[in-house]
Here is the input.
Amino acid sequence: MREQLIRAAEELARSQKLVVLTGAGVSTASGIPDFRSNDGLWSQDLTREDYMSNEYFFYDPVDFWKKYKQIFRVKLLKQYEPNFVHYFINELESGSRQVSIITQNVDGLHEKAGSSRIIEYHGSLDKATCPYCQKAYSMDYVLADEIPRCEGCTTILKPNVVLFGDLITAHDEAEAVIDQADCLLVLGTSLKVTPFSFLPEYARNQGIPSILINNEPTIKDYLFDEVILGDLNRLLPPLKKELKNAATY
Ligand code: ZN
Here is the structure.
């Protein structure tokens, strides 16, 4: 394990344009449930996936909003705080190293931790948009009424979270960021959700060195130069230490 952390630290220390992919495992320590993984929220009730879909939103937007607010516990959103993992990623942005984050998380915690180059691949909970006139609204506005409507045209708003069945509009942007990268670090994701899970393969095809740290093996482990299995909160402190050692060479 130590050897792996040292090799990972050396790779990270060399990187000038690092891309970090993050998944639910990064936010669980902030108390945010894993919405999509097997032991997360979705699997407790199969119909959640049906409700949180583009199809259901347009079929019954009133009921959609009731379920949405419940499932994503949006009232609690402001209480969630970044954890050690978010700050670790933010601190990687040191010296001349540029760090871009591509996250599957919709909780906005990377931004709250101070990171600035973030692609929210599955959208974000903190905004909603009018599907008719495209006017954007804040979370406060969304929470003010049970069913949020556009103040201009009264159309029921659509959340900026990517729903099942929605197009992923950030994929090209994510690939463009990987094109510029010299190292890929993947944290806290089982890489089961497509097309996000295609990104490590894309990086591999560009010959970019890659590191995966996750609490369980993934079906994409073979794509990585270094696979470190274990709890992020336990592994990142020693990695941080090795990174300091590596940086002083
Ligand atoms: Zn409108």
Remarks:
- The first helix runs from residue 2 to 14.
- Residues 130, 132-133, 135, 150, 152-153, 155 surround zinc ion (CB under 6 Å).
